[in-house]
Design a protein that fits this description.
By secondary structure, the chain is α/β, with parallel strands linked by helices. The chain has helices at about 40-45, 65, 70-80, 95-100, 155-160, 170-175, 210-215, 235-240, 245-255; strands at about 1-10, 20-25, 30-35, 55-60, 85-90, 110-115, 120-125, 130-135, 140-150, 180, 185, 195-205, 220-225, 260-265, 285-290, 295.
Length: about 300
């Protein structure tokens, strides 16, 4: 089971009733965070999932509303007694940004493992999180992310026996290892059934819509996407390379995702004006995000 929380839903600056957009994923007790703007550690505290098992932070890009919460969060992790490494992933320039932000917290008690991805479609695996990054059009280099939790095919006893696989090798093959035994190579496909669908969550903010994005997020169980304005402000979003809620819904429809959460709302739009009713006419399973909204996604049977 994968737990997802939309920690905040605001863009540009935090408001009294709206933290900056960030997402947290929790799988088998370990956690991944996407973006860390000012105040992110506060809404994390309100959520109550804890800090110590946070393993990964992914940055979409390096505008302040997505990164300036990092020093405070690192200090909080240190104060909580963290010792194990923390992995930070982002587009080119990551080391320079982290070096600058951590000037005020040089005495943190744990190492930082920086993974600076090339500005192209990339994949990296950290623990049980399979992370894909796609460059998306914004005013600075920016990634959309897909987070996947893969599902191992079922072990098929009948298939193992049919292929005359020694029982002592079953466990290794089930775990995906190939084994050479008495001049014969045994491979996982000799004991495993067909591939099974895992869990896929996509996250895109601060960008214009593209065909590549629709392909990238295709068949996601959950698509979290910016909807800077609910109403038509097309010239404004084009100028600053953001997205309308209606555009996010069109991507969700093309990509056949299961559910769309809108986020990264303009500070000019009060919460009372954030209503996805009209957007649901484009993609029915659309929800206007709210701070600390959560869901749990299970594997399909």
């Amino acid at each position: 089971m994968l737990d997802i929380c939309l920690l905040g839903t605001g863009g540009m600056l935090p408001l009294p009733e709206r933290f900056l957009t960030a997402m947290m994923a929790r799988y088998n007790g370990r956690k991944l965070l996407i973006d860390c703007g000012e105040g992110t550690q506060v809404t994390m505290k309100m959520l109550g999932w804890g800090y110590k098992t946070l393993d990964i932070i992914c940055f979409t890009h390096y505008h302040g509303d997505h990164v300036t919460g990092l020093p405070g969060l690192l200090l909080t992790l240190g104060n909580a007694g963290r010792e194990e490494p923390l992995t930070i992933i982002g587009p080119p320039g990551l080391k320079r940004i982290v070096d600058g932000l951590t000037v005020v917290c040089r005495d943190i008690t744990f190492p930082l493992n920086l993974i600076e991805l090339p500005y192209e479609k990339s994949e990296v695996v950290v623990g049980e999180f399979h992370i894909s990054a796609l460059p998306v059009p914004h005013k600075v280099p920016c990634f959309g992310y897909v987070i996947e939790n893969k599902r191992q095919p079922k072990f098929v006893v009948e298939k193992a026996r049919e292929n005359e696989v020694p029982q002592k090798l079953w466990k290794k093959l089930q775990l995906g290892e190939s084994v050479q035994e008495q001049n014969k190579l045994y491979t996982p496909d000799m004991v495993l059934g067909e591939d099974r669908k895992g869990i896929k969550v996509a996250y895109c903010t601060d960008c214009r819509p593209t065909e590549d994005m629709a392909h990238f997020v295709k068949d996601s169980d959950l698509f979290i996407c910016e909807g800077m304005y609910i109403e038509d402000e097309i010239e404004q979003v084009k100028k600053y390379k953001h997205m309308l809620s209606s555009e996010a819904a069109q991507i969700a429809k093309k990509a056949a995702v299961k559910e769309l959460w809108l986020t990264h709302f303009s500070p000019a739009v009060p919460n009372s004006k954030i209503d996805a009713t009209a957007i649901c006419e484009i993609f029915p399973n659309t929800i206007a995000g709210t701070d600390r909204m959560t869901t749990t996604i299970g594997f399909d049977d």
